[in-house]
Design brief:
The complex is a heteropentamer, with two copies of chain A (246 residues), one copy of chain B (257 residues) and two copies of chain C (242 residues). By secondary structure, chain B is α/β, with parallel strands linked by helices. Helices cover 32% and strands 22% of the residues of chain B. Classes of the chains: A alpha/beta (246), B alpha/beta (257), C mainly alpha (242). The complex binds adenosine-5'-triphosphate (ATP) (2 copies) and magnesium ion (2 copies). One magnesium ion (MG) binds next to helix 1 of chain E.
Chain lengths: 246, 257, 242, 242, 246
């Protein structure tokens, strides 16, 4: 199977706080990998490093065979291949819902306005926000914002989607719908890297689960193995507290 | 101390005179009291020049202490009207328009008009107004200097300028060919900058009225000081005035550069 | 001050006032727009993130130093001196004789640009980091994110400060008199110089100034409101099939 | 222009330059601070949400109209006119003889306040609505949220625009010479009036202006950095028991 | 039992969008009421109306026997009795974690700095953020921010706590811990009104569950009844889609 992303010895600190310590893992084409772990373990930081929003302190990020941390890489083109959904929505405040989903297509991918709007409407329907195309971000509820953010990322039709807790602000009804979309995308061959707190989702959809703890990957494996037979004590502990909470 | 020494209308033992302290040889600013300069109110500097010498004589005659207040030209009239100063002695001509707003004493100096041009230019040796046909000429804003330019036939009358330094720069840079001025200013300009020459009109100059070429002391309308000051000015003879002016031209700060 | 006099002075001199006001408004409108463009461009360049390649880093450093020097110099020195140096200096040193009006526009634009650059810097700082990140994440270059996402938001926030610049320019054109541009202030000065009625003549001028600045600030306020868009949005009819 | 001459002029006139610069800096520092305070206060009052009670609504409306008139008037008319009206007008009409220096501070502060009010308005607009809501939600009154939460953030964002005001004030004090305040510009005028060397004399003045504005913008930049705080934070030792 | 909040015929529209249509319900002292419902049904708007962050178009909000929509009510004092936790955190950006939790106590309640810090530390420990007192909001992860926001509200020691999806941005480990705190608070007699998507939480902790749908209260009752025997068809549908998603 083709390897899309290969993370090698990735390190990142903020001041005296070592957030990522020697991270190694890879994602194959078409794979859905879920990252779980407690708050502050570095999951968001890992995703941001992969997208180069954060500059790693060391290590390699190999995308389709090339280390994108090398200087001769076109970062902008690389980023269009990655779709990113943020924990905090980050919709463009100056644009309405429709234009949030078209601006990247038109300005970065060079699509025509018509084509871009058609594609945008397609994904806005998927997330159930097609009625709100005239709304400005500040007029939307949290859940509505996140759904638009997902549509915006999908509209770029990227190779790999990075989700940073995409459903944490969604209501359960919507979680189901978005899940369905994500499954469809997975079947179409889309590679996905999903930080999530939704254990049900991780269990059902992912090909592989990565458990992060205090800046390291403590354990990884197939969902059945991680959820039913975790090897590490800390994984067991995390899952125990998680599952009993719900 | 600031201007709080002002006491408005009431009788006081000081004589406050407003001037720009930047128009030699009539008035200028210097840093010590040499050559009889007088301290400027509220600063550590001194004012000297022809106006200051006249002001000293008037104050003496009035039996009051002279206080020099340094105010920009535009502020002189409101300062006088609002009682911040008692008199304007700033090389001001008693034009008819001005006389509507304030009173003037008798003249304390009279000069004539000349033209300041660049040395080596075609106008250096001009003798009459006719020689300035086709020349770019300007003068200071709000002076009759600017109006008399119209007497030159075929002249290119440029926009009036706010102050002499700007006109001098314009002349030096070639943007204008000359500016109209009064003899004392022109002498100062020549003394200070070897690129300037004064053209005196030996062959027919500007027609002017006495009001325009003379300078007088400005007073508030109906001021009781007017007669007294006229009396004092009457005691200064024409020769003495010329002496004071010669002395002022000699003493002005630019002269020792 | 007498109102009878004010009326008389206005009737005697209105063509002068009007011509002066016309010149003032033309110079300040053009220059504020040009200055704002300069300020925005500098803001965009200044926020370019540090590049990985050494060569680009050095170029950027040099460009930023030039911009800083520009801002410091033109903010830091009196416009009257700039006007003299640019207009007469270019004639003295290079024998370039600029058209007075062109010189005026250049001087005021360059000056406004220096102030606007700082205002824009403040405006960019106040935009949420997430906006930059989301723009980067969809592959926008620095310039694309700036022009499509950040600057539209910045412009909204700095409109009041830009209106200030406008108003300042309307009044600051007065120093252009040293290069022989006859705008409103200069005209008023001529009028007072003639009639010696300071308060009355300037009362009229103040009225004209107020009219100009008031009109301009109203226009910009209206613009602010339009940029904000409607308070509420309308739902689009629910068409289930396309 | 000759540098030999510049040196000579400086050596001859440095006490005049220095005293002028001192006056300029004192007036503009005090007035910018007072003006900023006026601007912030107006910003606070202007953003008071509509009250439920009719009486308060009317009062607020009146106060806001007064503030708007203040801003429009003092932004809209030339400071030279304001200076004349305040200093000479108060003497003429009310027989109030202000100290020149006090008058200068009043004039420049009021003027700066009008500009700052608009800058502050822009700054408040750029703060996220959520900040107001969270402050209201813990029971803060409008004034409490403003002073504790909103203004500290606004001040950070408007520092560059405030630096602009500062710099403008340093240069605008020049109009004060119509009321007899001898600041740097007037002194320079006197010096050129004496020596007839425009470029050289103003070259020195420009250098002094640059020095003043540069120092002030550095200080404010430093202040900006300090307000931003450190890029990273340090964890506090984990004491499990108190 | 004492009635703390009584909402009568509450209405609120945004433009042509009628978000709350004749809402009627009440909360008794010591009760924990959960509001569930799909995205956009008006849950956040209801909470914001109760806190007067949104001005209702009509109806009454009766708090301890007084209609707080009347003009002679001291709104500020009323708000200190309600603690609010937002969906979007809304930490004070200019203050560090500790000061976020003390500013209201000092400025509004008039507590001394010492006392305020002690109380703040107590609740910061509860949410596990006591190590981060020097951090500025922008330096925190989403989960960390929300935990601080909860501590900030708790530090005011209000009569009624309003939570707008307090755990939606928290990781499951933390959900358990926060739940525990909330239970403790409930036992201490704190009244709570919680908008949540966490059905497990609603089931376990609440005394009563309110189901909102398109701006009306479609159904309310004890958790057992709502979750096991919903009367309305739309409640059944919502719960079906919700539970199958997880
Ligand atoms: N600029 C920064 N300075 C200092 N520390 C930071 C900064 N940004 C993030 N951190 C810290 O890095 C650690 C990891 O943060 P990260 O956002 O990756 O956690 P996470 O696993 O995504 O948590 P959550 O589930 O709460 O989103 C946290 O302790 C966070 O406070
Ligand atoms: N200023 C506004 N203008 C127009 N519509 C608004 C405005 N604010 C909120 N709305 C709309 O009101 C409706 C209810 O929003 P609300 O935030 O109360 O939903 P919610 O039930 O909390 O949803 P979620 O679970 O996604 O948070 C939504 O359709 C929203 O878009
Ligand atoms: Mg995270
Ligand atoms: Mg909500």
């Amino acid at each position: 199977m083709e390897r899309v992303l290969d993370i090698q010895s990735l390190r990142k600190s903020f001041g005296n706080n070592e957030v990522l310590k020697n991270i190694n893992f890879s994602v194959d084409k078409g794979e859905v990998v879920c990252i779980i772990g407690s708050s502050g373990s570095g999951k968001s930081t890992l995703l941001r490093c992969i997208n180069l929003l954060e500059k790693p302190d060391g290590g390699k990020i190999i995308y389709n065979g090339r280390n994108i941390l090398e200087s001769n890489i076109n970062v902008y083109e690389y980023r269009t291949r990655l779709g990113m959904v943020f924990q905090q929505f980050n919709l463009f405040n100056n644009l309405n819902v429709l234009n949030n989903c078209t601006v990247g297509q038109i300005k970065v991918l060079g699509r025509s306005r018509e084509e871009a709007e058609e594609i945008a409407m397609k994904y806005l329907k998927v997330v159930g926000m097609d009625k709100y195309i005239n709304a400005k971000p500040r007029q939307l509820s949290g859940g509505q914002k996140q759904r638009v953010a997902i549509a915006r990322a999908l509209a770029m039709e990227p190779d790999v989607m990075l989700f940073d807790e995409p459903t944490s602000a969604l209501d359960p009804e919507m979680v189901g719908e978005v899940l369905k979309v994500m499954k469809e995308l997975a079947e179409m061959g889309l590679t996905m890297l999903v930080v999530t707190h939704e254990m049900g989702f991780a269990k059902e959809v992912s090909d592989r689960v990565v458990f992060m703890d205090k800046g390291v990957i403590a354990e990884e494996g197939e969902p059945e193995q991680i959820f039913n037979n975790p090897i590490q004590e800390r994984t067991r502990e995390f899952l125990r507290s998680t599952l009993q909470a719900v | 101390g600031g201007g709080n020494a002002s006491t408005g209308e009431e009788e006081s033992d000081v004589f406050r005179v407003g001037l720009e302290a930047g128009y030699p040889p009539f008035n200028w600013t210097q840093q010590d009291d040499s050559n009889g300069a007088v301290p400027i109110d509220g600063t550590s500097e001194y004012a000297g020049g022809y106006d200051v010498e006249i002001a000293k004589r008037i104050a003496e005659g009035l039996g009051k202490e002279l206080v020099i207040v340094k105010i920009e030209w535009d502020g002189l009239l409101p300062a006088l009207e609002s009682g911040k100063i008692d008199a304007i002695i700033a090389g001001m001509s008693p034009t008819a328009e001005r006389a509507k707003a304030i009173d003037f004493t008798d003249n304390y100096y009279k000069s004539d008009l000349v033209m300041v041009v660049r040395k080596g230019s075609q106008y250096e040796n001009a003798t009459s107004l006719k020689d300035f046909a086709g020349a770019k000429i300007t003068a200071q804003l709000n002076t009759f200097h600017y109006e008399v330019i119209d007497q030159i036939e075929g002249v290119i009358k440029e926009t009036a300028m706010d102050n002499f330094p700007a006109m001098r720069v314009a002349l030096e840079s070639g943007m204008i060919d000359g500016y109209v001025s009064e003899r004392p200013e022109a002498i100062s300009a020549m003394a200070a900058n070897e690129n300037f020459v004064m053209v005196e009109f030996t062959d027919g100059g500007f027609e002017t009225s006495d009001d325009d070429t003379a300078v007088a002391v400005g007073l508030k309308k109906g001021s009781p000081l007017r007669e007294k000051i006229n009396e004092i000015l009457g005691q200064i003879s024409e020769e003495e005035r010329q002496d004071i002016m010669d002395q002022a031209i000699k003493n002005q700060p630019a002269a020792d550069n | 001050m007498s109102f009878q006099l004010v009326k008389e002075i206005f009737l005697d001199n209105w063509p002068m006032y009007l011509r002066g006001a016309g010149m003032t408004i033309v110079i300040s409108v053009i220059s504020t727009i040009l200055g704002a463009i300069i300020g925005l461009l500098i803001g965009v360049v200044r926020t370019i993130p540090e590049s990985a390649t050494r060569g680009k880093r050095v170029i950027l450093k040099v460009v930023n130093t030039i911009f800083s020097a520009y801002v410091e110099y033109f903010r830091g020195t009196p416009m009257i001196v700039q006007a003299m140096v640019i207009y007469y200096g270019s004639a003295l040193l290079f024998d370039i004789h600029l058209n007075r009006f062109v010189a005026a526009i250049i001087i005021v634009s360059i000056n406004t640009g220096a102030y606007m650059a700082e205002i824009v810097r403040g405006g960019i700082t106040s935009i949420d980091e997430g906006q930059f990140e989301a723009a980067s994440a969809i592959g926008m270059t620095h310039f694309q994110s700036m022009f499509n996402i950040i600057l539209p938001q910045v412009i909204r926030n700095i409109l009041p400060a830009t209106a200030n610049e406008f108003v300042i320019n309307i009044k600051d054109t007065s120093v252009l008199n040293v290069i022989g541009v006859t705008e409103l202030f200069f005209q008023t000065k001529s009028i007072t110089g003639n009639n010696f009625k300071f308060f009355e003549s300037y009362f009229i001028a103040s009225g004209i100034y107020l009219l100009m600045t008031f009109t301009i600030t109203r226009i910009l306020r209206h613009f602010e409101k339009r940029l904000d868009g409607p308070q509420n949005y309308d739902l689009v009819g629910n068409q289930m099939q396309v």
